[in-house]
User: Fold this.
Amino acid sequence: TGFPASLPVAVGFLIKSYVIIVPIAIIITEIFELISKQPRNKKAISNNIILLLCSVGLVFASFSILKTSFGINEERNVGPTPYIMMGLNAENSGRYNEEDVNYSRSFLTKEERSEGNIQVMKERLANYGVYGLIKHSVRKALVNFNDGSFAWEAEGNFYREILPDDNKILAPILMNFYSSYGDNDNTTFKQITQSLWLWVLIFSLGFIIPLQKNNLIYFSIDNVVYLSIIGFVLFVMIFEARARYLFVFAPIFIICAFIGLKRTYHYLLKFFHWSNNKR
Assistant:
């Protein structure tokens, strides 16, 4: 922890705000470890938390000064409200909506933009009601989590220009595997990615199986992973929906799946051992 760790966190946050999710998970885990009955090292944990918070604050303050010196127009900063507003759009289950974007851009100041977006958010929540919001959340969850290809080729100009390739044997095979451009059929690619992603999600559910009480170190590491997953889920469920936003979180989901698989394996061993002893 400290300045070396907080510098990439601060820079990453200024580029993509969801970078802060993992550091928040680390801080929460350290705080719970600090107030637990058997902390690893109370003084070291306290120092880690204080150093991380102070250094992150220092870096953010430095970047605020730099932004001011560069003359960046903060009034053009859209903030988080347009993406929350899009996430509540029923027409396309919370995905990107051009009308919502144009509405946000119609305001001249940051404050007016935020107030206008919040007003639309309130109207949409009122129109949904509790049951309607639950149905919308289910549809949005399917958009976010039911695509193992992470919305591959779903948007963007993927094939604006096809560059010539001298490899006439391997290139067509690979192109046909991952691309649907022209006569290519990437059905096999999408079936493989969908299957792998579903298994990752299923194995991740193994986190509900508790660890042994004496395994405190692994418990803390696992908590960072699980809290990060919770943060990722909340992020994509609150803001604009799109499976591709989960792609940067895929490594954490894979780690979570292996932890869940490990816990499931040990639980089954313990269960069969208990069953054999009862016979």
The mean pLDDT is 80.
